[in-house]
Amino acid sequence: MDPQLELTGKIGTSQATGELDVGAGTGLRAQILQLEELVEGEIKAAKAKIAELKSDGTEPVNEKIVKEMLDKMQSTIQEAHDRTNTDLQDYYASVRDKNATTQKEITNVKLENAQLQQTLVAVQRRLKMLEVALGD
Predict the structure, then answer these.
(1) The predicted structure's pLDDT at residue 77
(2) Global pTM exceeds 0.70
C-alpha cells in the first residue's frame, strides 16, 4: 500500500489540483469558508488514512509515513492559505483603486453640476435683463 496524501476534492477546491477556486465565492467570508472546508477535508482524509493504516493488519503503522502525510497536508494547507491571502490583498487593492477612481468621478460631476447651476443662474439674469430692456 502506497500511503500518499490525496486531496479530497471538497467544494471550493479544484478536483484536479486541490487549489482553492478564489473566484468561486463572493467576498472574504466565502473564501474563508472555502479554506475552512479545504482544511476540514484534508484533516478528515489524513485521519481516514491513518485509521486505515492502523486497522490494516498486514502492515505495521509506520510513524515516518504518518509524519510525511501530515507534513504534506500541512504544506498544502499553508500554500492554499498563502494563495488566498495574496489574492485577498490584491482584491482589496483593486477595490481601493476603483473606489478612489469612483470618488474622483463623483467629485468631478459635483463640480460640473455646480458650474452648470452658476451658468444657468447667469443666463436667467441675462434673460431678465433683456426682457426688461425690450419691455421698455
Answers:
(1) 86
(2) no
